């Protein structure tokens, strides 16, 4: 039963709906004024793998699932569509599509943020003399001005997860998109933009600041699409949507879709939405999401912080005159690795994994290295097990996987402490892997910080609902939202860091072996 869902009383007069379109699942929650879940539905998001390294989503299937999951959740809540005060939409970031402006027909499937098709292009650019010259210029400018804008990773180095590189690939390889762009008939959109376009039957073409900034094509310092980057990569500037506030009246869903017009009051990127759902409203507030990937976010208030490779700046949300910035570090393949381990029968139920890890003293020197992106900056690093022995059991393999999550959390946290000169507050965790007590306790021990976990791990849905509720007047302000927040478990440091040193040193050696 989802968090906050209690025995049903009479249907509330009004509700807000939060939908989270994630990488593996799509969830819809219906919330009342107490932020109690009144209705819930969930559907699996099916990825397509047409070629090695390619990851896509079928736009029509995604649209059908989106409409279906909302209808199911409303039915589960026992309310009528006209009782919805506002719809908030949280989406996976950087997954994008392009389509014809006049016909609305896509030129290709959604290209996922996990897609690696631009690897050769990335490699070529990162070795180019032009990029080396740009690096020197930006380094000098940063030295002279001290302005972190000149550390913007979207120009200083390219990687396969950046939208810009995959967009460049589109215009080099999909002739129809290139021709349409020449006539200003090509639209670019992340998942939120496509859903807005479909919900309003083409009358609304927009995104918000959180989704735009996550593409790496939108400049968070100037708050506009980056013309320098687009010119460098031969991406036409005419393709981008207008950027709106995060908590904003985007219009209404066409009445033919749900039977009545439903106000669309917020669109937001999933990590920023989870940050808002955790009520990380103040500078120094920290959120750790462990889902498909792992994301550390720090609220930096009115200030932007960036580093060469490890951390990058984002716009958290924009509400009226308020613009809140975040700094983020990430690691790929957390939930995906655990799901893979389940698929190859290392365990039956994910709930077993914490007990399996705790049933043995250590991993007997077995290490698991996930595929890094940010810190190693190496698209060719490989996931691997190191240290396998005849005595290795499933428990050792599972423990090695879970330890690798905690070790990577420790690495990113140390980078944040070193580079973000803001006192850090309590860490708030969410995402499916935050339900794993072994990972949570080990992470708390390693970073020597208290970690709070809410009763509901689906913070992206709640954040989208909070933002929609503010825009619709369903909730008054952020102070009211903070009173609705509920903490289920608090993990506090129990072991000394030295106890983990041998295992972490071995893991670091294994990590080096997996690179390049």
UniProtKB/TrEMBL annotation:
Identify the species of origin.
Upupa epops
Q: Does the keyword ATP-binding apply?
A: yes
What does it do?
A: Skin-specific kinase that plays a key role in glycerol metabolism, catalyzing its phosphorylation to produce sn-glycerol 3-phosphate. Involved in skin-specific regulation of sterol regulatory element-binding protein (SREBP) processing and lipid biosynthesis.
Keywords, alphabetical = ATP-binding, Cytoplasm, Glycerol metabolism, Kinase, Nucleotide-binding, Transferase
Q: Name one GO cellular component term.
A: mitochondrion
Please identify the protein, giving its name as recorded.
Glycerol kinase 5
Q: List, alphabetically, the InterPro entries matched.
A: ATPase_NBD, Carb_kinase_FGGY, Carb_kinase_FGGY_CS, FGGY_C, FGGY_N, GK5
Q: Which subcellular locations apply to this protein? A: Cytoplasm
GO annotation (BP), single: triglyceride metabolic process
List the PROSITE patterns: FGGY_KINASES_2 (PS00445)
The record's family statement is:
Belongs to the FGGY kinase family.
The Carbohydrate kinase FGGY N-terminal domain covers which part of the protein? Answer: 16-277
Pathway the protein takes part in:
Polyol metabolism; glycerol degradation via glycerol kinase pathway; sn-glycerol 3-phosphate from glycerol: step 1/1
Top-rank EC class of the record's enzyme: transferase
Signal peptide residues on this chain, from the entry's feature table: none
Q: Where is the Carbohydrate kinase FGGY C-terminal domain?
A: 287-471
Q: Where do the coiled-coil regions begin and end?
A: none
Q: What is its EC number?
A: 2.7.1.30
Molecular functions (GO terms):
ATP binding; glycerol kinase activity
């Amino acid at each position: 039963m989802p968090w906050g869902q209690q025995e049903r009383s009479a249907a509330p007069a009004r509700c807000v709906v939060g939908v989270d379109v994630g990488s593996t699942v799509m969830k819809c929650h219906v919330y009342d004024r107490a932020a109690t879940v009144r209705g819930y539905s969930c559907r699996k998001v099916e990825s397509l793998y047409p070629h090695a390294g390619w990851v896509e989503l079928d736009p029509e299937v995604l649209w059908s699932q989106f409409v279906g999951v909302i209808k199911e959740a409303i039915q589960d809540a026992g309310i009528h569509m006209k009782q919805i005060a506002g719809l908030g939409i949280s989406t996976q970031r950087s997954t994008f599509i392009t389509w014809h402006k006049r016909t609305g027909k896509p030129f290709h499937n959604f290209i996922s943020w996990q897609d690696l098709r631009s690897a050769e292009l990335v490699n070529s650019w990162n070795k180019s003399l032009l990029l080396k010259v740009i690096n020197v210029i930006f380094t000098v400018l940063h030295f002279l001005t001290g302005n972190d804008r000149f550390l913007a990773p979207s120009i200083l180095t390219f990687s396969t997860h950046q939208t810009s590189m995959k967009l460049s690939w589109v215009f080099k390889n999909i002739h129809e998109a290139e021709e349409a762009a020449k006539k200003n008939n090509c639209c670019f959109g992340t998942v939120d933009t496509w859903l807005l376009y479909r919900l309003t039957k083409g009358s609304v073409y927009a995104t918000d600041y959180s989704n735009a900034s996550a593409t790496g094509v939108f400049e968070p310092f100037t708050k506009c699409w980056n013309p320098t980057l687009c010119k460098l990569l031969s991406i036409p500037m005419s393709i981008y949507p207008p950027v709106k506030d995060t908590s904003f009246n985007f219009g209404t869903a066409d009445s033919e879709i749900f039977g009545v017009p439903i106000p669309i009051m917020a669109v937001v990127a999933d990590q920023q939405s989870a940050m808002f759902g955790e009520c990380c409203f103040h500078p120094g507030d920290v959120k750790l999401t462990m889902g498909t990937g792992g994301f550390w976010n720090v609220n930096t208030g009115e200030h932007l912080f960036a580093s060469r490779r490890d951390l990058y700046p984002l716009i958290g949300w924009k509400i009226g005159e308020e613009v809140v910035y975040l700094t983020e570090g990430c690691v790929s393949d957390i939930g995906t690795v655990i799901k893979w381990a389940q698929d190859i029968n290392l365990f039956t139920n994910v709930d077993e994994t914490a007990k399996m890890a705790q049933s043995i003293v250590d991993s007997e020197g077995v290490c698991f290295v996930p595929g890094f992106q940010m810190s190693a900056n190496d698209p060719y690093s490989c996931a691997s097990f190191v240290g396998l022995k005849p005595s290795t059991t499933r428990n050792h393999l599972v423990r090695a996987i879970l330890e690798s999550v905690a070790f990577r959390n420790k690495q990113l946290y140390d980078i944040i402490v070193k580079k973000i000169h803001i006192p850090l507050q309590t860490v708030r965790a969410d995402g499916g892997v935050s339900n794993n007590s072994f990972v949570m306790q080990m992470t708390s021990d390693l970073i020597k910080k208290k970690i709070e976990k809410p009763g509901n791990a689906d913070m992206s849905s709640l954040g989208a609902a909070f933002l929609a509720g503010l825009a619709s007047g369903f909730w008054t302000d952020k102070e009211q939202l903070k009173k609705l927040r509920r903490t289920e478990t608090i993990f506090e440091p129990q072991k000394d860091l030295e106890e983990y040193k041998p295992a972490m040193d071995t893991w670091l050696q294994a990590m080096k072996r997996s690179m390049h």
